[in-house]
Amino acid sequence: MTLTVAALAAGAVACTPAGPHGPSVSGSQVSGRSATPGRGADEQGRKVQKLAEPARPTGPAPSEETAPSEESAADDGVLRPATRPAVRRSISLGLEDVAGTDQNWDQIAERFDAAGITSVHLSAGRVEFTAFDWAAHPEAAAEPGEDHLATAIEHVGRMPDGSPREVSIMIDVLVPSWIAADPSLAGQDARGRRAEYVPSATALLHGPVGERYIDYLIAVAERYRPDQIAFSELAFDDETFGPEDLALYRTMTGRADWPRDAGGDIAEDSPEVASWRSDVLARFLRRAHTALGEVERRAGQEIRLATDVHVSWDDLAAGPAGVGHDYTELAPAVDELVLWAYLGTRGREPGDLADLTGALDEMPLSNDRLTVSIGLWDEQAPTTADGDVPAISPELLASSVAEAQSEHVAVNVTPYSLMSPDHWTALHGIWGDADGGT
């Protein structure tokens, strides 16, 4: 039986220890590229006005042919709400943690309980490197025969009092292996160079890459019924200028060509390109949200859709439209935005987080639609002897979390793999004695 979050919520599965599973997967193998937030040159400065809630499924209850078991399906067509703690404090576990060798899940659960962690973000890997056996693409399994996500949910899916802990499952959208096998899927920059990790806008919106993202979204939703599923790394770099993307740009905007500068070169950082990129991502996310809604109907359960977004430090409430992250465009398409507030990759200070959350507090979004994610990577420091990026100090983590906390914004810390005992002590000092009730 595949363990679902719904089964935990219903008390149907006991949380018993399980042995360690899976290969060791390093952070660099999983992320594939730098987690540095987007380019400042593309900021649009558009203030957020009213951001609509995405539509939830309506209509009749699931039919007998498509409905899941009686214990999880709604009887009256009303979706069972996702777990949503009153105070949301979360930790992210990358695939290196979820599928790691000799993982001590009992220790992880104890650390979560002591630090008052009310939510957990778990990586499902990529469509080309999955954390479980995906029937549609068995060749992509990180370790055939192992369900690493089920093991993780079993051990960290409950709070100390036995109530469900909020579970969000992350899907990394980078596809370097697929692009290496079929370069036509890659985006191209203005000089014709192909991306290594990111598909073209066309392959995402109307091609096989976007289709497979949604297929995997549905597979994860149906298999685990988590409270939330989030896309990670869903952003554009410079590679949206290939011929297929020009055709897409013409169709979507009605313009005959890319905007050009005085010398005739493509104006890569123009507001028109930035707006179009955000529109591409918003359209894809709306399509994904609709597909997820079909699973919600069958399960009788709310499953929220989120997406990671970069931060525009020059215009905190707007989002960097140049990478496709105009908040005004994306927020209505999803249930939550997860902001990458990674101080160590931008040389920022904790006070900048206070400014960020202050700006977000002014946005017309409720607490459960915004999360500030504090990254532990310190790209300003020398790499370790193994060539890895070290973590920011425990003191910086503590001050960052303290500054980021807000009445209307949730806080996440990522990744678990960089959390030392001293980091846990620092986090416990901020969160450990706080009220984390649901």
Automatic annotation (TrEMBL):
Name the record gives this protein: Family 10 glycosylhydrolase
Compositional bias per record (Low complexity), positions renumbered to this chain: 61-71
Region span, Disordered: 14-82
Top-level lineage group: Bacteria
Organism: Georgenia halophila
Residue ranges with Polar residues bias: 25-34
